[in-house]
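quick one, 292 residues, struct below
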Amino acid sequence: MQEKSATVSKKGIEFDALSESTSGINKNRKTNDDFKYIDTERCIFVVADGLGGHGNGGEASRITVQTVAYKLTKLYERLKDKDCSPENIQEGITEVIEYTNSQIVYPIAEYSNDLQNFGTTMVSFFYHDGIAYLHNVGDSHAFLYGNNHQHGAKSLFQLTKDDRVKSGSNGCSKEELKIRSIDARLKQYIGNEHVKVHSNRVNVHGNDILLLATDGVLDPVSNLEIAEIVSEERFEDIPGKLVNRANHPILVPLFYSKYKGVSINTAQKILAGKDDITFILLRAKEVNNHGT
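---
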């Protein structure tokens, strides 16, 4: 089900928000292990992908998203009453995610007889005073499509880091690196005893588009295709186009066929709609007032 809403920040930026969560057409498992959270009033957005095969991935993603969202809401309320540097906000969000892992998710994974060996990836977005704060663990990611100030053109930027082990990846092309990433195992996720939270912050401008997505979108759809869809389609049509491309990939099967030595038809069957497809799409708009 597609959702749409809007909110306004203190710096005169309004976010239109669209989201999708569905299972891929060729997913083997019947359950959807993804979970997302959307709070347009406070500009808090979280996406998580529970690990299938690790047991109770859907519960891990739900618990993680709800805990992180609750803690970020508390942070938002505190920021209303006092000034805080971007560095402190960024570190505060990191501590929220570390707390969620060490005090909530890992203890459940370690000690519960019913929920053993469960985990999830996650990516979060928190916006305050003109700055977007992006944090992730695992292979769920955030992207920004906006102006490239060095080259004078719009480009797609990945704002988060990947936690997949890619052996022998030195000297690989971007296409081959993507294929190696698809087949690589996660080296960390929420539910590990210890996690290293990746964090980033960027200034947000009018007409910027941000995407928070799970690997159900990012594995079968190339960055080039994401950029083309985002730039060429009406904002309202982008979610449907992304879901369709994840279910019917074009470029990535070509890469996969080349580097894996299989037919294109086989590559398409391997990659098409093989996982849950969940994402949140945000569009920043400049406004002349501070109301909704």
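The helical segments are 57-81, 86-111, 174-183, 215-218, 223-232, 238-247, 251-260, 264-271.
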